[in-house]
Every structure is written in structure tokens, then in C-alpha cells.
Design a protein that fits this description.
Layout: E1 2-7, E2 13-18, H1 23-63
Antiparallel strand pairs: 1-2
């Protein structure tokens, strides 16, 4: 028997009991989750970088009026 522990915001945790034959599949799922999370974070970084120049220009033009 294996135990998967997941941590949530605020220090809350949840535990799941896994049968031995489930471990490899759950490891793959967790790997996919981490890859997806990294990709989403990279996309967010790109979006922020693309938005910054426009935001800075808009702020400057408003103060110059």
C-alpha cells in the first residue's frame, strides 16, 4: 500500500491510499500535471511581458495630458 499526500493552500493536506499497481500510473499523471503547470506558467510570463509595454505607454500618455 502506498500513500499519496497532496498539500493545499493554508497548510491543508489530503491523503489517498494507492494499490501497488496504481503507483506507476499516478506518477505519470503527476509528471503530466507538473509539465502542464510549467507550460501554463511560461504562457503567463509571456503574456505579462507582452502586456507591460502597452500598459507603460498608456500610463505615460494619461499623465502627459
Amino acid at each position: 500500500m502506498w500513500v499519496l499526500t497532496i498539500g493545499y493552500a493554508g497548510g491543508r493536506t489530503r491523503q489517498f491510499s494507492l494499490r501497488g499497481e496504481q503507483v506507476d500510473q499516478v506518477r505519470r499523471w503527476l509528471g503530466n500535471y507538473h509539465k502542464l503547470k510549467e507550460a501554463i506558467e511560461a504562457i503567463c510570463e509571456l503574456n505579462h511581458a507582452r502586456l507591460r509595454p502597452e500598459d507603460a505607454g498608456k500610463r505615460r500618455s494619461r499623465t502627459g495630458d
